[in-house]
Amino acid sequence: MVADVPEIWKSLEQTPIGASVRESLWLFPAVETLHLLGMAVLVAAVGAFDVRLLGLAMRGVRVSELARRLFPWAWAAFAVQVVTGFLLFSSEATRMVVNPAFRIKMVLIALAGVHAAAFRWIACRDMAEWEAESRTPIRAKIAGLISILLWVGVVAAGRWIGFI
Prior knowledge:
The chain is mainly α. The chain is 77% helix and 0% strand.
């Protein structure tokens, strides 16, 4: 299976970074711990926003105010995810690119990004109008539900990586 992997992934594993993460007694678990902590912060921030969109909590907080408070945390955590994810990937690139759970995780992250952009363009264009009302519009609730499902999928797929 590894023989069919493009040379670029094999080369990535042999870089000083990939080799160090893979061969160090403490580096891989330390990076993985940071990756998991970053995921916890990211999912907490995005999840809190999504729960507000669904109208299940924080109904007295304006959506725009909640976004202003939570999104810097989400972006910082996402940056941690990208860096630590790259480090972890570089240590086992040839195994990861053929791992179905890893592939699913990457697709779900891409879909979550597309979903966030679509939400921004569609549901947020008239947010000032609807966030003043007592009820969140159905399109925002659907967006919140889809977001939660996508991020739960990312977490689940990430967890499955080590078992497939």
